[in-house]
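Hi P.,

Sorry for the delay on this. The queue was packed all week, but I finally got your sequence through. Input first:
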Amino acid sequence: MRRLLLLGWATLARLAAIGLLGITMAVLLLYAVTGAGLLRWLATGTALGTILAAVWYFIETGRNAVEVEAAFALAASERTEDDSPHPVEIMTDEGFSDGHLWSDDSGWHLEADGSRFSLDLPDGSTGADAELVLKDFVAAAMDDRGWYPRCCGTCSYFGHSNTSRRVSRGWVGYCLLHAQGPLVPGRDAVHLWHRCQDWEEPAA
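Then the structure:
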């Protein structure tokens, strides 16, 4: 029973609905062959059970979605409260350099070896999806300086769920490399600029 509970109530409800639906179909087939009145009542009971299990599944799915959104909102706030420059590794034409990446009201900035690259943000873009802004910023930095910051947002293991993108406006997503089983916001959520030794370049 403990192992079943670890699956989660929504999964159990879905399995129950599928199982009861299969039983209902089998009983109806037997009733069609034999005409036994008891089978008709049994089919009615299992059909009602299927409906109740389906309703249970939708309730649990909705409850889980609310809980995940609340948990991710907390994880996102914890990971975005520090607005100081984030340390990142920068790929350059000469090799690798330690640098910092940050943003302010004027735009996004990348600094390495005493030099800085900045990209001004157009008016009204402060609420834009941060991951999309990062892609534009990296492209501009590559064109201007040949710099490519190695951080979670540029890593092949970084990803978003619908909830993470909506709640954090793209600032916080998930590390798909270190995740163990279902994604857990408090454990697997990472900031777009987080530096990690397991960074891997996305496939072209």
